[in-house]
Specification:
The chain is built from 7 helices and 12 strands. Helix 3 crosses helix 5. The structure holds fe (iii) ion.
Length: about 250
């Protein structure tokens, strides 16, 4: 297996490149429009063929590179079926995993940050990886006050679907704002100040209600574009109208 964790600094987004070492087929999880050139260079350098772009959810803080990658490489655009996007080529859900060569990405329905959010489990000999999107961040989680977010739903997703995984499962989030790269399920269960440490549902709901976060800077451009898989027609206009800036909490 080939694995790369790639970072986009304006939105502090991690894009994950995962490829089958035998077939050289690859998937990019949560690719960002601004870093499509870098991603293509990494694919070329490693001799990989991009088979899919795959999203954890409809992002509010950046525009996906999905349809740009499709037009440049011929890859298929994969989304959670629950997002209901007509622009997607492949719809995944818990009973329809994504196969990339010999690798299987198992979707886990983890709503709460958005109502259609999915995480992806990748099991390989010696390592279980979970790509948690914005459901579970290192020492944090995505916000729950937009996109049909729901704090009790997120609490349930994390506790039932993610914290129930083996403690040594590696947690790869969609964002980190403090240059951390990876965590484990055990570490988040024990240390996550919002969801771990034995926090109750009521405590979590109160924490999320009191976050007092600013309005997401790019949401008004990013969400409409992402509902079109990155809005390939006219995407330059969408990008030009939104100055980049740091956006926290996914
Ligand atoms: Fe998000």
């Amino acid at each position: 297996m080939i694995f790369r964790q790639l970072f986009e600094q304006e939105s502090s987004t991690y894009t994950y490149l995962i490829a089958c070492g035998d077939t050289k087929r690859a998937v990019l999880i949560d690719p960002v429009l601004e870093t499509v050139g870098r991603d293509l260079a990494v694919l070329a350098e490693l001799g990989l063929e991009l088979e899919y772009s795959l999203e954890t959810h409809i992002h509010a803080d950046h525009i996906t590179a999905a349809c740009r990658l499709r037009s440049l490489t011929g890859c298929k655009v994969a989304y959670p079926e629950t997002d209901g996007l007509a622009c997607a080529d492949v719809l995944v859900n818990e009973v329809n995993p994504l196969q990339v060569g010999a690798l299987t990405l198992q979707p886990l329905f983890t709503p709460g940050h958005t109502d259609a959010h999915h995480s992806y489990l990748l099991e390989r000999p010696g390592a279980l990886r979970i790509f948690t999107g914005d459901a579970l961040l290192i020492d944090g989680c995505g916000r729950t006050d937009f996109q049909n977010g729901d704090a009790p739903a997120l609490y349930g997703s994390v506790h039932e679907k993610l914290f129930s995984l083996p403690g040594d499962a590696l947690v790869y989030p969609a964002h980190d704002y403090e240059h951390r790269h990876v965590s484990t399920v055990a570490q988040e269960r024990e240390r996550n100040p919002r969801l771990g440490r034995g926090r109750t549902l009521d405590e979590f709901v109160e924490i999320m209600a009191k976050l007092n976060l600013p309005y997401p800077k790019r949401i008004d451009a990013a969400v409409p574009a992402n509902l079109l898989c990155g809005a390939c027609p006219g995407e330059e206009q969408a990008i030009a109208s939104e100055p980049p800036g740091p956006s926290r909490q996914g």
